[in-house]
Structures
1.
Amino acid sequence: MKRALLLGGLLAVGSLSMTLVAFQSPAAPKVIEVEKLKDHLFVLKGGGANTAVFVGSNGITVVDTKNPGWGQPILDKIKELSNKPVVRIINTHTHGDHVSGNVEFPATVDVVVQENTKANMQRMAPVTGLGQPPGQNIFEANGGRGMAKQTFKDKMTLGSGADQIDLYYFGRGHTNGDAWVVWPALRVLHAGDIFSGKVAPLLDANNGGSGVEIGSSLTRAADSIKNIDTVITGHAVAMMTMADLREYAQFNKDFLEYVRGGVQGGKSVDAIAAEYKVPAKYAGYQAAEARVKSNVQVIADELKKK
Ligand SMILES: [Zn+2]
């Protein structure tokens, strides 16, 4: 069964290091690989973020909808998995590789996000560190289709029993609206990009992200969410565990202290970034030069404000 679902299993390598929009030529075939996690829960990989598809008794919930143009391929792939209708989208945060497919879903589909993410989706501000020019808001360009309809602040429960989905917000990190999505009956968590993989995070200050807060937000999640066997991250191909999440929290706390030490020692942002090395205990973590530099800048700016 699992093997049969790995249709066209060509997945771009290197997606670990991407936490944002992969620019592709429009002609490139849109290939989605399906990993079946549980009887009613699938991860759709390719085209941006890891999309989760949950087949509930009254319809399907989709978590994150990938880059522009990937909404229909998601819907096509879902048809191979179930004949139930999609009733709900949950977006973990505002970024284009997580929300853009929303506009290709039927207008009747509910869209649920953390309340700060709704405000961010209304602006779609350029992402910190990517040098993007301001573009047209994809929701405005589509007459408001796909925009968030329902919001929560700290916690929301949707459905009950086998259908139950719990949504949490544990504070700023990647943005100021990072939702954590939990299926308690399945013991699965989708962390979105606040834990995108074993990689230096993208700290999107333009959308409320925080390098000072991210470590404690991650720890709060690891302490609060119980009984999880499998963690879906924003982008990593491999599934993770709560132990990986705890390690990632510490990785970010260590980075904050590294930057704080440099700032207090009077070093420039460039010097702090250039001298950074991933500590040996975080084997396999990726920290691209441009990402590190952007994150040092974000944290230095935050520390200055304190
Ligand atoms: Zn993101």
2.
Amino acid sequence: MTTAESTYFQTELELRRNRLIEATRDNPADDNLPQLLASVDAALSRLHAGTFGICETCHDTIEADRLICDPLLRFCLDHLSTDEQRALEKDLVLAASIQKRLLPRQDWSIDGWRAFYHYQPANVVSGDYCDLIENDGGFLFLLGDVSGKGVAASMLMSHLHATFRSLAGQNLPLQKIMEHANRLFCESTIAGQFATMIVGSANPDGKVSYVSAGHLPLFHISAAGVCAREATGVPLGMFGTTNFPVCQLTLRPGDKMLLYTDGLTEMFNAAGDEFGVGRVQSLAKKHASTEPDALLRACLDEIRNFSPTAKQTDDLTLMVLHRAA
Ligand SMILES: [Zn+2]
């Protein structure tokens, strides 16, 4: 465990310890609280002894994402009791249904714009973020990818969702939204966790401002061809203070934008070839004049053809935004 991780867990455990002491003072009759306090103290002792995060059965490391969610864990996934495994499965199913409810509706449209998306976790929950928020005559579109996957990534994803939802209601310019979101994200993550994102603001007249925080190229698809728009800054959560340059583009009636996460580009086929950004660009070119929902379906077909038997290893999200002709 690195010093930063150890410091993080120490802080988290001490926070829980203080809360428990307060709660015990307020509810002296609750005998669950002293038990929890003993578990927190035991975890702090393990941290000082250097055995924190080690499974007590196999002495292998406990999965990092589970430990972030619950620093009191003492066993890896393979060595849970049957009851614990069942409880965990139930929790994951619940988390997945909560996450689904955070997604925008599927038949989304506003003032001449339509949006279509496909959101597919690699496992039960996803670390991809996808949202559409109406504001001030236009709307914000957001697509991102939190580092890692699984439960910890999905928690950061819902954190991003809450952050951007509350910032969007405050009528701030895009640059300010990004600065605030970045600071909040930095404060809430441990070292090494960040998110690549595209956050854009679109208006009924087709004008779009966007920031790409270290994310894969966005494709603007128009009658003139397909134009790749590269990242404009570093990922969210990497540095506490950083600028997020805002870029502009205009979508004429009939134009589309294609956004996606690395679950698409970093897919491998049986021969070991990576799908790559080039294939996404070719797809966009090939389907430049197709309807936005058909473009989305064509992308999904292409993935299936590229790698029919491969197990999905990363969260996958695609979004197509279309300005109606
Ligand atoms: Zn184990």
3.
Amino acid sequence: MKIVQFLRDKILAPLVVVLLMPIIISIASKINTGDWMEWFGLIPKTAWIIFGVVIFLWVIIIPIRNRVKQLQELDAGPLLFARSSYGFGWIPIGKLNYAGVVWRVRVPATSSWKHFGHLDISPSSIEVETPPRCPKCETDLEQSHSFWGGYVWRCVECDFQKRNRDSYYREAKRAEKIARREWEKQEHESSSV
Ligand SMILES: [Zn+2]
């Protein structure tokens, strides 16, 4: 439905105008003068230029403007991802390099006083924090939608910038899987010693 609407509004309408105009002019020319091409010669050059510019704006500028508007709305929109929160806060357990940035790995504290031993942590409780951090200076990264699709991650402190196909919320879920598996492996090694 959306695709049909898109084709109709963005591609079909300009195309119809572009194709129909010369056909209408040549039919009118044939009826009035007996020659298919005669009326084309009567149209001044400036009219052709204006016509060309209008079509150019229609085909090129309007979709670009729409895309920019759409991105502004996306970036201003509410954050859909609510991460779980724990009353006792988080205990950082390490860092992970993934997708070209640094992810902080953490587990929820089960109480305000309990000290974690290595074996107390179950891999399923491991979470990766968002936003990820800059690989150069470890500042939180900012995310925005890229014009051509995908995302751009920018460091607010240094000049680090990275394009990524998926959002960092999605990449965080992947980093989480890797972190959990790494933890499992470590646990296995330490229990077999
Ligand atoms: Zn940085």
4.
Amino acid sequence: MLKNLLLTLFACLCIAGSHAALYAQVEVERCPRPTEGSLVTEPEDLRSHDGVLKVELTARNSRQNDGSTRYCFMDENGAESPTLRVNPGDFVILTLKNELTAFHAAAVKNGQQHMHGDMGGNGDACTSGLMTPVSTNLHFHGLTIPPVCHQDDVLKTAIQPGDAPFEYRFRIPEDEPPGLYWYHPHIHGFTKAQVLGGASGALIVEGIERADKAVSGLAERVLIIRDQDLLNPNAPPAKWEPVIPKMLVDRDGDAANNGTGYGKPAKDLSINFVPAPYPDYRPAVIEMKPEEQQLWRVLNASGITYLNLQLLYGQTPQPLGLVAMDGVPLNRNGLPRDFVDWQTHLGIPPGARVEFIVKGPPAGVSGLLVTRTVDTGPSGENDPNRAIATIVASNEAIEPFSRLSAATLPLPSPQLPWLGSVAPVRTRRVYFSEKLVDPNDPTSATEFYLTVDGQTPQMFDPKSEVPNIIAKQGTIEDWIIENRSAELHAFHIHQLHFLLIDYLGRQVNEPFLRDTVNVPYYNGRTLTYPSIKVRMDFRDPNTVGDFLYHCHLLEHEDGGMMGLIRVEP
Ligand SMILES: [Cu+2]
């Protein structure tokens, strides 16, 4: 009996030994993802109870066979990138455990293999500022919560592998507009890698149906569009595409904008992690009951890709009933309570959100969610026309997890006067620009700047504590944001929303607020640089402190296109 047992055990060990390589390959995927052509499922919803949302997240990564790295946030039940659902006034208590692994020599050298002290860090996640490929943290994009440690500071807060779980603890403001927000890491120099790898998730402030009756009682779907490195980088374009000029590569090594709307994209796209990769763009599958109306809450969590969404039934673009941008209902300034802006395409810069009403296709008709090409400028990346998901009308379609309340107790009006009706205390001018390290060598590295007019252009220095801008809490300022570079940029500021007043010299006076906005590129042929004007709102006491404004193309942000603002009490 014992002899048999030992023999069995010995046999097992032999098999284990001879198959070590095999076992290494089939080890459990730490960031599992659906395959091409899969049904689009929704992220899990985590809801607050008795005014508190408790979440335990773990940051993980995994190396893929093609050399790319996936990053993910998993909750305590194994759900990836759960949607955090909160009400105004709720407390969020979120612990983040860092289980990132260094896969690259540089990461090992600079990261977890060294003690914190070796890198100038001090072992304190609140103050170390130690930012390496395996450090992580969270930014709550769009929320007006304080820029302090354990809330929404990303200047110093950095959690290292092996640190105790780090606790975020903040209150959703009572007057936070209801809508779609999101969370993602913000480690200077490494944000792009983590976000491209998939580290992002949605946060919903409930109550949009109280702001806009047009969505009351609708089923809602959270759709997160992310980008990632090409799965088939060496494939030629599909045969159905028109022949385009020879593909060029930009300074980041991504496919450059060729101006045709076709050709190799800079990055692949996925929708709720279902990839729709170049060159065939096999779409993911969204099922809906025939002609059902739903509220789609779409986040562009891409690192660098602009979206221009369109929904086609046959060849016909369908009306998309826009009700919110960047988490703010479109009637925020007091427009009618059933206001809907019907559009046939919706542009979404990286970081931005759109929420819109769609009607499912009739039985027997299939639809296609596409992104149309975006002209990112001669120095921009290629964002061609491509399919993302097919819409299948089916009576068996699974109902979305969440349905908006049909009750329409109106949301209280904002306490402060509408931003458009308040005079600014001053006007500032900031500008995007880029410079080759060696102007005579077009292959040399590019430095990215976001500069206050009059100051010397400098890449953002995380070690510097000198703010580029000092503002006063309680005031309102107008900022003119210029683009002196040959590519499109997406301006974003932490901690607050702003009002877009002028766009390319045209008054727009939007009835809502944004936190991310495009600034068109300079084509070299106009007397002035393209610019926009926004009205910044520093009235909320939660905006007091040091925080960031930057381009939301993450390779630009990581590359220095960022500035520091201090709002004094
Ligand atoms: Cu940019």
